[in-house]
Design goal:
CATH class of the largest domain: Alpha Beta
CATH architecture of the largest domain: 3-Layer(bba) Sandwich
Shape: globular
Radius of gyration: 22 Å
Helix content: 25-40%
Bound molecules: flavin-adenine dinucleotide
Number of helices: 15
CATH superfamily of the largest domain: FAD/NAD(P)-binding domain
Distance between the termini: 24 Å
Length: 448
Amino acid sequence: MTLGADVVVVGAGVSGLVAADTVHRAGRSVIVLEARDRVGGRTWTTSAWGAPHDLGGQWLGPSQERARAWCATLGLPLFPTWTAGANALEIDGARATFYGSIPKTSWLALAEVELALRRIDRMAARVSWADPLAHPDAAALDATSVASLRDRWLRTRAGRALLDVALGAVFGAEARDMSALFLLAYVGGCGGLRRLVETEGGAQQDRFVGGAQGLALALAARLPAGAIRLSCPARMVNQDGAGVVVTTDDGPVRAQRLVLALPPAARARIDLGVLPAAAQQLTQRMPMGNAVKVFARFPTPWWRDRGLSGSGVSDVGPACFVIDDSPADASHGALLGFVTGDQARRWGRAPEAERHAAFAAQLTRLLGDGPAPDAYLEQDWGADPWSGGGPVALGPTGALHAVEGARFAALGRVHTAGTEAAYAWSGYIEGALRAGERVGAEVVAALE
Ligand SMILES: Cc1cc2nc3c(=O)[nH]c(=O)nc-3n(C[C@H](O)[C@H](O)[C@H](O)COP(=O)(O)OP(=O)(O)OC[C@H]3O[C@@H](n4cnc5c(N)ncnc54)[C@H](O)[C@@H]3O)c2cc1C
């Protein structure tokens, strides 16, 4: 039997669901095809420990207006990330504790990191995420890796290590994995790198009381029963003058318009037919970052009583940063480690007992002797078949030139949503919502 609707959306992440909601509210019919057996995509909350922990996206910043507006509309309360107390650091052989978001390491390293951050943010303010090639130095910046830029701008090992930690935390990647143009355009679209690495006043300021997947679950609940087809990957897309047909294992789905709400590389698993060169490149040249989230549980957040925030940065690993992830009611203590880039690849190859022992040892180095964790949770996004990595798609050298014109454009009746297609806050839940709302309105306007 052929299913049919005005619009079919591929991907029930936040972006696809808000696009579907926009279509539905405009009085048009919509079907959402989702490969997994759940909605939420890169947001995924577990209650395995009796309280929510986010295995994927989790924080909201103060200037993420659409996400905050949707939380208010859907009745999803937020609470501030725990920051009280001293933070810990292990960088370039030095161990220390510090207050605020800039670690206390050698004065020289600190001064040059501060200078590099200012330089990045000053330059980023002049590079448009929507049109990075409009920058007069776009060709040179796209030919330069962030690693080259880092080594030119930072002389101390500690300074370079601190920048690497920041890049790991934001992109799940190594400095060599991105072009300077991509870094500047991406952070420019979010208001600067400093905002992305900070907790209070920055992108890590608030958490969802019930977990971030609540956004997708609440959006899904607004759609008519049966509109979302779970465990139903889109395999092939054909379009002609009359419409679009999506082939799935359960049969074809016909619509007038299609929204692809996926990361660029995930498109490669769908046969989209003959594509223009830049659209082909989009599936090949913007790989995902590599991130593992690991959680250690304790009966209480004991570090708080010792005047420690539970936050720490590290160039030793396995986590590049650690943060207090205890639930809003502190019914137990939890520390979250973000393992990224090369460390994430190493993590994926190590046996479970070794992985957890390495994380426990890192917590002891950062926070001192305390109770041993009584359980662990982890999610390796690099091994996730439908995301292929995380948190976001990267732009290695040359990529932004190779995909020019394809990142946001519709291919006939096939429209592009997903956080990577947001004009601002790309890579974040905020960007996913913005892209979904924009493309939802675009397809409604395009319906005959
Ligand atoms: C570890 C990690 C930490 C993060 N931290 C934060 C954070 O703190 N704050 C923040 O704002 N953002 C964070 N993010 C990023 C944020 O989660 C994403 O930007 C956002 O969820 C992306 O939503 P999306 O709808 O664009 O894409 P996705 O969530 O990736 O949704 C795409 C959907 O398409 C589905 N799909 C793929 N292929 C097919 C197919 N062939 N057919 C049908 N369905 C398919 C996938 O299963 C998925 O459900 C993080 C992400 C990760 C992984």
